[in-house]
Amino acid sequence: MELIRGRIAGRSLTSGDRLPSIRSLAGSLQLSASTIVEAYERLVAEGVIVSRPGSGFYVAGPLAPLSMAEIGPRLDRAVDPFWVSRQSLAAEGAVLKPGCGWLPADWMPQSGLRRALRHLARADDADLADYGTPLGLPPLRQLLARRMAERGIDAAPERILLTESGTQAIDLLCRLLIEPGDTVLVDDPCYFNFHALLRAHRARIVGVPYTPHGPDVERFGAALAEHRPRLYITNSALQNPTGAVLSPVVAHRILKLADQAALTIIEDDIFADFEHTPAPRLAAFDGLERVVHIGSFSKTLSASARCGFIAARGEWIEALVDLKIATSFGGGRLGAELVYGVLRDGGYRKHMDGLRQRLARARTEVGARLKQLGIVPWVEPQAGMFLWCRLPDDLDAADIAREALGQNIVLAPGNVFSLSQSARGFMRFNAAQSLDDRLFDVLWAVMHR
Amino acid sequence: MELIRGRIAGRSLTSGDRLPSIRSLAGSLQLSASTIVEAYERLVAEGVIVSRPGSGFYVAGPLAPLSMAEIGPRLDRAVDPFWVSRQSLAAEGAVLKPGCGWLPADWMPQSGLRRALRHLARADDADLADYGTPLGLPPLRQLLARRMAERGIDAAPERILLTESGTQAIDLLCRLLIEPGDTVLVDDPCYFNFHALLRAHRARIVGVPYTPHGPDVERFGAALAEHRPRLYITNSALQNPTGAVLSPVVAHRILKLADQAALTIIEDDIFADFEHTPAPRLAAFDGLERVVHIGSFSKTLSASARCGFIAARGEWIEALVDLKIATSFGGGRLGAELVYGVLRDGGYRKHMDGLRQRLARARTEVGARLKQLGIVPWVEPQAGMFLWCRLPDDLDAADIAREALGQNIVLAPGNVFSLSQSARGFMRFNAAQSLDDRLFDVLWAVMHR
């Protein structure tokens, strides 16, 4: 196969040319005819050649352009909410990504994933080919119900809906709960893709400053009174990007204010497994009346096998199922099967114990090296990937990030996270993606230009 | 594990109870202590029991309700665009689904899927854990470009975007191209989930009657003039539900009308691999100027491993990538890897050859048995799953369907497909799901009640 592909790429065979007959190629390569037949069959399946019965095999045309690479990091892209995601998702091997929000692939539970895939290869026909049921794989919802119960959240499996991802979970909720022009509260700073998603919904976005213990309660109350938002979207466990943790007293006050203002809160729990000690969950205090609890396993298990979930009031679950079917028909059953397979495998718990320790060491090491450059964290993170740091000397993080991109490093400048654009001097570093010496060399050079 | 689960289900162990110690259970079951340890570890991972270090293992609480079954077919559900999908997706083993729109799991390329899963278990770490690139797996897009080229559609890989499914593809396009209140044309009758999706987008939906050769050209022109729609959504290859095939002359006329009216057409190609001989593709005539070509592998490869695609103008692809990231972040990489693995395997082509023959036999057999009941097809389908049939004696298909549901058979009554509700006497039968004698016994009984 490689021989034929090579001849096509080198244009010694071009579209319309007839390939050597099976017998003659078998003879010249000293291989069996059946080997050549198999190779030709596979090339037909790939569309590289076509079979004309009675006549032979021919090179298909027109040919693909010689370069097929994904569009890599672009120097001219505006520093907007897509800046980090587009650059990071397209980045190839040599590009460093200290600004991205996920772990390197080899930090994820690879042996558990591979074991689950092998197990799936022996599963029932239905598991491999059928659409998912409306709510999604029952044993996974049962497992999620128990995990939530451990964090004090009372959600029966029938009140849990599986989704394709955490982002799709929030997107479905926005489709259900808000209209264009409705106001939505977010933290400032917050995860940049919340901005992108809410813009896609034409929401009016209002930011509430985040403190080391949760949103600023006074500013939260003022925002409720002035803007009458429909929704508030926030993280639980660990705030993205600051790494700060909600305190119980702030949680309680926020919920009281939400109650008075008939505000719905979406609590995004995707960082749950990074915690050493569990932070308060708004859904635990509130009992899923006013709070919707969502999550996924993209950060700790796999971003390749997609699976997220929503835990909410029963009436909303029913409406969300209809919306999910209307906009994506069945859910991704295989992703749910894979996630369930890894979660129920005893090895995942051990893996996460090891991962939390590995991350703690990385945060320590990266934190120390950043401090040497005068880059200091806003709060000392107790868990997770992120170091939210202030740059020294009034440096502009967006300028630094543009310079670094020219040297194949994707950084996350503070203002992509801040609605009020008040994080000009901040940068979010992913400790697990910041362990390469080159990062610190480039940072030093760029900061002293 | 089953022993412990059984005791909990039977309530001989309840929440808070301490489990037997590892050593004592090993002794009483005559198993090694390490087997018991492994079992307890897995039960902890599932959340069924909790470990209290130094104290032992305890049953977790509160317990799940004893019945966890998905909500099965509901007799009181309104016969609306979700009637068939909700009932079919939730149906369990004993329920027959002649009304559903997919093949039985054992008709799908199971050995290819299993082979691809085993192969994936040995893939790179990145394939198993990382987010997909913005456009999606490059070799799959290249393969799709070649497949489209075989049907005369000129789409470079960079103009192809992978999505989670065909439905998500259309949903993304609607998010990009239409506003609430915009008018969208559909065929009458058409796939019921187009109705559900367009309602979710608050579109005004206008139906154009379908003829055995494509949409009624005069009525199409009249609808353009009267309603000035933004979009027209239709199938290529085989129309759902009628099984009719677009003729070249109708295709050409529709495109001329579309051009004069600045109409965008979305052509849904999900039934492509069912064709024996290729029907015209609007995207082939038009060159992706006005036509967007979408598809997926849910019908012929797997509905469990989700993967769809959009081929469109370059500017739209760029905007669609941003929309995809905003609303679902990365795409499902594993689904794409699996689909690619099966497609490039020489066995898929052979499988599809066999499947088409198997379906042809099923259509013949089912068609004959339906004719015995006086149920006759509107057109004789040349390919695919569907038999779109008229009931005799002015029977109402919705009444028949409700009666059949009481006997655990999910049918597809005509009016769920028809915007104008002009298909009261029609039923769509999926030949592959209609091979059970019980269906015909129940149909006879219900029709003669």
Which short descriptors sum up this protein?
homodimer; 449 residues; alpha/beta; Arc Repressor Mutant, subunit A; Aspartate Aminotransferase, domain 1; Aspartate Aminotransferase, domain 2; eight-stranded mixed sheet; 17 helices; globular; HTH_trans_reg/aminotransferase (chains A, B); transcription (chains A, B); DNA binding (chains A, B); pyridoxal phosphate binding (chains A, B); DNA-binding (chains A, B)
Give an overview of the whole structure.
2 copies of one chain form a homodimer. Chain A is α/β, with parallel strands linked by helices and 449 residues long. Chain A has 3 domains: 2-59, Winged helix-like DNA-binding domain superfamily/Winged helix DNA-binding domain (Arc Repressor Mutant, subunit A); 83-101 and 348-447, Aspartate Aminotransferase, domain 1; 114-344, Type I PLP-dependent aspartate aminotransferase-like (Major domain) (Aspartate Aminotransferase, domain 2). Chain A has 17 helices and 14 strands. Chain A has helices at 2-9, 22-29, 33-46, 83-90, 110-120, 125-129, 138-150, 166-177, 192-200, 217-227, 248-260, 282-286, 314-328, 333-343, 347-372, 397-405, 437-447; strands at residues 49-52, 56-59, 160-163, 183-188, 204-211, 214-215, 231-235, 264-268, 291-296, 308-311, 376-377, 386-390, 412-413, 426-430. In chain A, the strands form 3 sheets. Chain A has an 8-stranded mixed β-sheet, sandwiched between helices. In chain A, helix 9 (192-200) links the parallel strand 4 and strand 5. The longest helix of chain A has 26 residues, at 347-372. The radius of gyration of chain A is 26 Å and the shape is globular. Chain A starts with a helix and ends with a helix. The interface between A and B is large, with 102 and 102 residues. Chains A, B: Residues 1-62 form the HTH gntR-type domain. Chains A, B: It comes from Ancylobacter defluvii. Chains A, B: In the C-terminal section; belongs to the class-I pyridoxal-phosphate-dependent aminotransferase family. Chains A, B: InterPro entries: Aminotransferase_I/II_large, HTH_trans_reg/aminotransferase, PyrdxlP-dep_Trfase, PyrdxlP-dep_Trfase_major, Tscrpt_reg_HTH_GntR, WH-like_DNA-bd_sf, WH_DNA-bd_sf. Chains A, B: Keywords: DNA-binding, Pyridoxal phosphate, Transcription, Transcription regulation.
